[in-house]
Design goal:
homodimer; 558 residues; alpha/beta; Metallo-beta-lactamase, Chain A; Rossmann fold; Ubiquitin-like (UB roll); eight-stranded mixed sheet; six-stranded mixed sheet; 16 helices; 26 strands; 25% strand; metal-binding (chains A, B); hydrolase (chains A, B); 5'-3' RNA exonuclease activity (chains A, B)
C-alpha cells in the first residue's frame, strides 16, 4: 500500500471469503489504523494445527506508521490473534471495557500483561490519529459492549460496522444507536464495510429476549436439576439464565474454565447482575435438593473436553446428570460440530435426562447475534454509503450482501467484493481496486507461529492415511555388501505382528534391489538408490494392499 | 445365539446406535435369515479407512444355518457390504429387480458376478425357509422398489419395515400398500422392527411430487443452461427432472459415473421413462443453445471428485458453468458435508451462476425419504405389534421412536432399545434381552478387510497431529562407540531445512544420552536405551515446540 499522500486505502488482512480471523487496515497518508485481530480454527485438512491468524507482513513492513489497533468486540474471531501478533508487533489497543477485560485474560494466559497500552473507549469516545479522527456507535450482538467505528479522513468518512444485529428490545438496555447511525449517514459516508454473516438469511433476527422467555418456561417445568449450556461470551444469555434461576428459586453453579472466567469478568465490570447468595461451588450442589439447582456450563458445541461432554459421558469429577434432570442446549451447532453435539444428546438420553436440543426454530433456545437480510438493508439505508465493501463472510454471503445493497440503491459499480489482500484505494472520491498486498494464513502449531508449511502438512496428510514404512539397511563402505538389515519398521501402516509375510517380502525386494544396483555399479548414487527402493517397495505394497504409505529408505554406510 | 428349538431370536449386526451398515439377523431353530448387508463411511477419527462393514463372526460360526440374505432396497447402507462379505460368506440373495440390478453393478466392480445366486422377488412373492415363511409389502422411499418384510414363524410374526415413508401421491404410482399392512396387523404382529431415521422430526414428510413442482418452476424460469445435482439413486427425482426437461423442451446430459450407471439400469428395467431423443452426450452440449440444455450430475453432497465440484471449480474436461446458468442443488447436506457444499456454492457464485441452494424448507428442492413422527405412528398403529424394536438410527432417534410407540399404546415394557449384538429372544410369546453375540465394526482399508486395528489407527492419529522424528545411530558391537550418526529425519513434524538448530540439538541430546548410558554400562539393554532416547528427545522437543511427534530411535550395531 504505497500510495500518494491523499489516498485513502482499505484492505482486509483476514475476514473476507472466510468466517474468522478478522483484521482490517485503514490507511491515510502515513497513518495506519488496524481494526480487530482475530483467529480462526483450522479445518480438518490442516492436520495438527492449533489456530490460524492473519499474515501481518504488510504491518511489519509499515510498523512505524501504525497508530492503533481498534477492537470492535471481544469474540475470538476479533481478538484471538492478539497475543500471537503482539509478540511480533506492538500496537496500542483501543476497546470498550468488556472487550479489554477479555483481551487482558488472553494476555495474562500468554504472560504478556503490560506488553502494550490498553485504552478504554466507549460509544461516545473520539480519538485522533494524525489526519484520522475516530468515533464510535453502539450496536448489539451476542456479546455486550460492541461498537461500530467511524473514520473521518480528509478524503471522506469510512464506517466499519463490526458484528451487529438490531435488537430493539435488548436484554440489558444496550439499544442500537439508531439516531447516531442516522446522523452519520446524513453527514455522508464515503465507504461502508458491513458484516455479512447472515446475508443468506431472510427476515429480521429475533430479539435475545425470546430466548429468555423460553429459558424461563423450561425452568418452571423442570422438576429436578437443570444443566444449561451456551457460549460463555453470550453475557446477555447468561443474564437471562440468572434471571430465570432467581425467579424459580434455584442456586447457580458454573462449570468450565471459560464460563468461570467470563462470569467473573462480566460480574466485576457490572455487565452481569447476580443475586448475592445465588452462586455456589459445583462441589456444594449435592447439599441442595435437585429442584434448587441450575448448572451453567461450557461445551454447547460438543467440544470433547468441555463440561457438557464430560457430564454426558458420566466423566465429570464433581457432578452427574441423573434420570429426570433437564439439559438445555442453548445454541446451534456450528457446521462441523453436529456429530459431536449429537453424541452428547445420545449419551444424555442414555442417562434418562430430558434434553432440549435441535433446531432453534423449534426449541426457541437460541437466536443469532448477526443481522439478517432486513437488518443489513436497514444498516445500508441508514448509512447511504457511496462505496460498499461487504466483509466478514464467505463468498456466497458477500455475494448475497451485494444483492441486498443493490436492492436499496447502492450503485453496482460501487460495490467491491474483495479478497484478503485486495486494496481499495480512494482518491478524489473515486475508488479503484487494482493492487494487492501479501497476506494469508499464518498457522500456529504449539509454540511455532508460521513454521508449519505445505510440505509438513502434506506429509501429515499422507501419514494420516496410510502411515509410514521405514526400511533400514547398513552397507559396507568398501564392497557395498549388506552388513545389517534390511529391517522394516511400520507406524500407522499395518500392525507388524500380523503382517510378517508382507514385511518379509519387503525385505526380499529391498535385497533384490540392492543386488541389482550392485551389478550395475550404481550403489553409490544415493538418491537414485533410495528412489529405486521406494519405487519397488511402493509398487509391491500398492498391488498387494491398495495402500500408499510413505516409504522411507535409510541407508547407512560404515 | 445358541437357543433351544422353539425360540425366535432377533439381533442387529449393524444399524442400531448408528446410521449405516444395516444388517439384521432372524433365527428360528436351525434357520437363519439375514436382512440387508450395508456399509457406512468412516468418521474423521478413522484415519485412512475407506469403509466400515459389520463384523460377521456370528454368521461365519453358523454358516450352515444361513438360508438367505434378503435385501429391502438398493441404498449403500443396505447393500454396500455385500461384495466384501460375500468373499467370506456365500449366501443366496433375494431382492426386487432394481435392488438386484444395483447389487449386480457392485459385484461386477469387484469381479464377483456369479459368485452367488440372485433371486428376484416382488411385493407379492412368498418364500419358505424351513420353518420360516417370508412375504413382503410395498413401501415408498427415496429409491424405487422398496419392500418391508414379514416373517411368519411358529412363534409368531415379525415385521421389518425396511426404510420407508408414506408418500400417498408417489411419483411413479408405487403406492404404499396400506391395505396389506392393515391385514398384517389384523393377523397379529409379535414383533415390529421399524426404522427411526426421522423419529426426531415432527409431522409428516412431504410427497416427492412437491420437489417435482419446484423443479419444473425453476426450469421454466431458467434462461440458460441448467445444472441439477441430486443423489443418483433417487430415481423418482431423476424422473421428475426428465419430465421437467421434456416440458421445457431441453436435452439431457448426464455427468458422473453413478448417475450414468443408475440411469442406465433404471431405464433398462423400466423404472425411468426417458423420451427417445432426449439424452445427449456431455460432449454434444455445445451444439445446442444454452436454454435447450439440462445437465444432471453427481456431487450434491460436495464430494470433491464428483462432477458438481469439478464444474464449480472450472475443472471439468467437457462442460463449463457460465454466467447466467442455473445450478440447482436438489439435496440437503448430510452433517459433515456442509463445508464442502458451501465451497461449491461459493465457486458457482464466482462464476456468476444463479444457484438454488440452502435449506430445503426454503428452496423446496428436497424432501426426505424417511417417515416423520406421524408416519412412524401410522406404521405402529397399522401393525399393532406386541413387541417393538426401533432400528436404523442413533440412540436419540431410537429413544424418540420409543416415545412415539408408547404414545400409540405399545406397552413400555415391551419396547427393546438394543445395541448391535444384543439378542432379543422370544419363547412362548415372551421376549427377553439378556445375551449378546460378538459384533462390531470391520474396517476396510484398500484391499485389507479388518486388518487395521486400534494400534495402527492410534499411530495414524499421532502422525497426523505432529508427525514423526527418526533418530538413526550406528554403534560398534565391540566398544559401543558411535560409528555413524546420529542422523535425524523428520516427516510431518518440522521442515528440516528451516529447523537446523532444533535438529542439531536433538543430535546433541542423543549423543549425550548414549554417553551417559555408556558410562553406566547400560548400552546393551536395547529397550531401555531406546526409551531413554525417546524420553530425552521428546521432553526437549515438547519444551521447545509444545509438539509431540512420534520419536523413533533406530540403533544399528555392526
Amino acid at each position: 500500500m504505497n500510495t500518494n499522500e491523499s489516498t485513502l486505502s482499505i484492505v482486509a488482512l483476514g475476514g473476507v471469503n472466510e468466517i474468522g480471523k478478522n483484521m482490517y487496515v485503514l490507511r491515510y497518508a502515513d497513518d495506519i489504523i488496524v481494526i480487530d485481530c482475530g483467529s480462526k480454527f483450522p479445518d480438518e485438512s490442516l492436520l495438527g494445527i492449533d489456530l490460524i491468524i492473519p499474515d501481518i507482513s504488510y504491518l511489519l513492513e509499515n510498523r512505524d506508521k501504525i497508530r492503533a489497533l481498534i477492537v470492535t468486540h471481544g469474540h475470538e474471531d476479533h481478538i484471538g490473534g492478539i497475543p500471537y501478533i503482539l509478540k511480533q508487533l506492538n500496537m496500542p489497543i483501543y476497546g470498550t471495557r468488556l472487550t479489554l477485560g477479555l483481551i487482558e485474560v488472553k494476555l495474562q494466559e500468554h504472560n504478556l500483561l503490560g506488553i502494550t497500552d490498553l485504552f478504554t473507549i466507549n460509544a461516545e469516545s473520539t480519538l485522533e490519529f494524525g489526519n484520522i479522527e475516530v468515533s464510535f456507535f453502539r450496536t448489539n450482538h451476542s456479546i455486550p459492549d460492541c461498537v461500530g467505528v467511524v473514520f473521518s479522513t480528509p478524503e471522506g468518512t469510512v464506517v466499519h460496522t463490526g458484528d451487529f444485529k438490531f435488537d430493539l428490545t435488548p436484554v440489558n438496555d444496550e439499544y442500537p444507536d439508531l439516531h447516531r447511525m442516522a446522523d452519520i449517514g446524513s453527514n455522508g459516508v464515503l465507504a461502508l464495510l458491513s458484516e455479512s454473516t447472515n446475508a443468506e438469511r431472510p427476515g429480521f433476527t429475533p430479539s435475545e429476549q425470546l430466548v429468555g422467555e423460553n429459558i424461563e418456561e423450561a425452568f418452571i417445568r423442570a422438576k429436578k436439576k437443570i444443566f444449561i449450556s451456551t457460549f460463555a461470551s453470550n453475557v446477555h444469555r447468561l443474564q437471562q439464565v440468572i434471571d430465570a434461576a432467581r425467579k424459580t428459586n434455584r442456586k447457580l453453579a458454573l462449570l468450565g474454565r471459560s464460563m468461570v472466567n467470563v462470569v467473573s469478568i462480566a460480574h466485576e465490570l457490572g455487565y452481569l447482575k447476580i443475586p448475592d447468595t445465588m452462586l455456589i461451588e459445583p462441589s456444594d450442589v449435592k447439599a441442595y435438593e435437585p429442584h434448587r439447582i441450575v448448572v451453567l456450563c461450557t461445551g454447547s458445541q460438543g467440544e470433547p473436553m468441555a463440561a457438557l461432554s464430560r457430564l454426558a459421558s458420566s466423566d465429570h469429577r464433581q457432578l452427574e446428570v441423573l434420570a429426570g434432570d433437564t439439559v438445555i442446549l442453548a445454541s446451534t451447532p456450528i457446521p462441523g460440530n453436529e456429530r459431536n453435539v449429537a453424541r452428547i444428546v445420545d449419551n444424555l438420553f442414555q442417562l434418562k435426562a430430558k434434553v432440549i436440543y435441535g433446531s432453534a426454530s423449534i426449541t426457541g433456545m437460541h437466536v443469532s447475534g448477526h443481522a439478517s437480510q432486513e437488518e443489513l438493508k436497514l444498516m445500508l439505508s441508514l448509512m447511504k454509503p457511496k462505496y460498499f465493501i461487504p466483509i466478514h463472510g464467505e463468498f456466497r454471503m458477500l455475494h448475497q450482501h451485494r444483492l441486498l445493497a443493490e436492492s436499496v440503491g447502492v450503485d453496482q459499480n460501487n460495490i467491491f467484493i474483495v479478497n484478503n489482500g485486495d486494496v481499495v484505494d480512494i482518491t478524489n472520491q473515486e475508488a479503484i481496486q487494482r493492487r494487492r498486498i501479501t497476506t494469508g494464513n499464518t498457522l500456529v502449531d504449539g509454540l511455532g507461529i508460521g513454521d508449519v508449511g505445505t510440505i509438513v502438512l502434506r506429509d501429515r496428510k499422507l501419514l494420516s492415511e496410510d502411515g509410514i514404512l521405514i526400511v533400514v539397511v547398513t552397507l559396507s563402505k568398501m564392497e557395498g555388501n549388506i552388513l545389517s538389515g534390511p529391517d522394516v519398521i511400520s507406524r500407522g501402516f499395518v500392525y507388524v505382528r500380523e503382517s510378517e509375510a508382507l514385511l518379509n517380502e519387503v525385505r526380499q525386494i529391498t535385497v533384490q534391489t540392492i543386488h541389482k544396483l550392485h551389478e550395475k555399479k550404481n550403489i553409490t548414487q544415493w538418491d537414485f538408490f533410495k528412489q529405486m527402493i521406494k519405487e519397488s517397495v511402493g509398487n509391491y505394497l500398492f498391488t498387494h494392499t491398495k495402500r500408499r504409505p510413505i516409504i522411507l529408505p535409510i541407508i547407512i554406510q560404515v
